[in-house]
Amino acid sequence: MFLACGVTDMRRGMDSLAALVQQSLGADPFDGSLYAFRGRKGRLVKCLWHDGVGLCLLIKRIEQGAFPWPVTPTGKVVLSPAQMSLLLEGLEWRRVQPAWRPTAV
Q1: Strand pairing partners for 101?
Q2: How many other CB atoms are there within 10 angstroms of residue 4's CB atom?
Q3: Helix, strand, coil percentages, rounded to 5, for the chain
Q4: Which residues are bridge partners to 33 per DSSP?
Q5: Which pTM value belongs to this model?
Q6: Residue 80: helix, strand or coil by DSSP?
Q7: Helix ranges, the chain (H)
Q8: Per residue in 26-64, pLDDT tens?
Q9: d(CA 97, CA 25)
Q10: pLDDT for 87-103, tens place per residue?
Q11: Bridge partners of 37?
């Protein structure tokens, strides 16, 4: 799962986002990975995913607040499925503290 860092024009459709994955991120949009893009206001996320048959465009809008989004010089960030789940819930995914576990019985 990849985040396209920075701001993306949310008027883009799936073909335009697939071209953005190829040109800006240097990746193959048909490799089965999930590519996420965020708008300027940070309230809308579009995810592009190829399921082996065709491209899927998933959109989520958060009603309050904004999706936490990084800015990096490379232009993309790799996330685990757990981190992506937190991000799509609108929670801070970069500084997650693991649950306390006992060290002895």
Answers
A1: none
A2: 22
A3: 15, 25, 60
A4: none
A5: 0.80
A6: coil
A7: 14-23, 81-88
A8: 899 999 999 999 988 889 999 999 999 999 999 999 888
A9: 30
A10: 888 777 777 666 677 78
A11: 46
